[in-house]
Amino acid sequence: MIKTSLKNISKITNGLFVHKICTTIEKIEIDSRKITSKCLFVAIIGKKLNGHNFFQEAINKGCVALLVQYKLPIIFPQIIVKNTTTALGQIAHWNRIQTNPLVIAITGSLGKTSVKEMTASIFSQYNKTLYTKHNFNNFIGVPLTLLRLKKSHRFAIIEIGGNSPGEISYLSKIVQPYIVLINNIYPVHLEGFHSLLGIAKAKQEIFSGLSQKGIVIINADSNNLKLWKKSIRNIKCYFFSIKKNNIFATHIKIYPNHSSFIAHTPFFKKILINLPIPGYHNVYNALASIAIATAAHVPVNKIIKGLSIINTPSKRLEFIQLNKYITIIDDSYNSSNNSILSAIQVLERMDGYKILILGDIKELGRNTISYHLNVRNMICHAKINKIYSVGYYSKLITDNLIQGKHFNHPFIMLPYLQKKIHHIKKNTFILFKSSRNHQLDTVINLLLKR
């Protein structure tokens, strides 16, 4: 972040500065274990932990001041604010304005992280680029990402998520992007939004922070174009699609471990794109990143190279060789009907014996049963040898399927799977598909340790 004074921090946050000292800070930290010199400790009150309980550790580690919601009973520099989470966002917004990069904000139901990684790979070929790390896409993670900005950064690629109405609007105003992307709309986080229309309205909140003369990029194959077009009538917009549009793809070829297509854009006409990852859905993700790069006038050679060397985000169709016969495909980061369909399509293209392991789909609310039954219908027609379900609702997927078997818990399945793997002596692919909190990633780790 930009070096600034504690006095300025109190002004930015409209805070009360007590036990004043005249000094500057060069870093902000919310984790007392990571405190270094010239650091301001922000005491966040979360669902599980209260940062105010760790002020002494922060002081011992060398922080110069505390940003708190109530005065602590110590003689030490403190800036007291109404809400430390809000104050964190205010400081992050200030840092974003001071550094002034070209900011890109990415949202959508599926593929946000993949698009972010692809876009970051492209822009990093062109100039110094900061981008969201891990899943820092919420009201804590986005400000922390913006606080990493320095004047040397030319671009910032920020992933924005939301579980309820208003979150994306709040974050968009902090980020103040020049280019925004809505990648797609699918039934994810239905508990917070109740319907696909609710999700679509929430995603369009990303327009609320769009800077003047900003650019909007939208998936033209979405069912919500009419809704969004009303909000962007006077805004420059690019649409991407697998059908003819501003940015579109032809000659799509999907292989077991990579894919290729020809991208058509308003400026570059035809570009041969080679992706080191499989999946039809990744063609869409690549088109989104190409649209962003096109809007930012990134040279075509940077686009081609950036997409050719992208790294697969962890636990998103990550290929892991277990032994000479078995390949694990780890897609255990998140789950929805559409991402399950994408995973099935990838698995079907593998040349060998195919096993699919599914966990419950989370946050579907009142649609939970119907969506699990929809997955069952998809699987009935899939060319997959064995299907194991794990959890509670996932039993609906494999119940009475000849090739199916259900387990109530991942660790009940583990010994069964270990025994089966021990006897496999032919080319086999095992795809794990679930939400993060279903512990299938732990099962994978235990299999790899054997």
Cα shape? globular
Note poorly predicted spans. Answer: none
Number of DSSP strand runs = 22
Helix content: 25-40%
Which CATH C-level class of the largest domain is it?
Alpha Beta
How do the strands of the widest beta sheet line up side by side?
9-10-8-11-12-13-14-15-16
Class per helix and strand makeup: alpha/beta
CATH homologous superfamily heading of the largest domain:
Mur-like, catalytic domain
The count of domains is 3
CATH topology of the largest domain: UDP-N-acetylmuramoyl-L-alanine:D-glutamate ligase
Largest sheet: 9 strands, mixed
- What is the overall number of helices? 16
> Over the alpha carbons, how many angstroms does the gyration radius reach?
24 Å
Mean pLDDT: 92
- Rounded to the nearest angstrom, the distance between the terminal CA atoms is 44 Å
Content of β-strand: 15-25%
The CATH architecture of the largest domain comes to 3-Layer(aba) Sandwich
Structure description:
- The protein is an alpha/beta fold and 450 residues long.
- The protein folds into three domains: 4-82, MurE/MurF, N-terminal domain (Udp-n-acetylmuramoylalanyl-d-glutamate--2,6- Diaminopimelate Ligase, Chain: A, domain 1, 3-Layer(aba) Sandwich); 100-308, UDP-N-acetylmuramoyl-L-alanine:D-glutamate ligase (3-Layer(aba) Sandwich), CATH 3.40.1190; 318-449, Alpha-Beta Complex (Protein-Tyrosine Phosphatase, Chain A), CATH 3.90.190.
- Helices cover 35% and strands 23% of the residues.
- It has 16 helices and 22 strands.
- The chain has a nine-stranded mixed beta sheet with strand order 9-10-8-11-12-13-14-15-16.
- Helix 3 packs parallel to helix 6 (167-175) and helix 4 crosses helix 11.
- The longest helix is centred in the first third of the chain and has 16 residues, at 84-99.
- The chain is globular.
- The two termini are 44 Å apart.
- The mean pLDDT is 92.
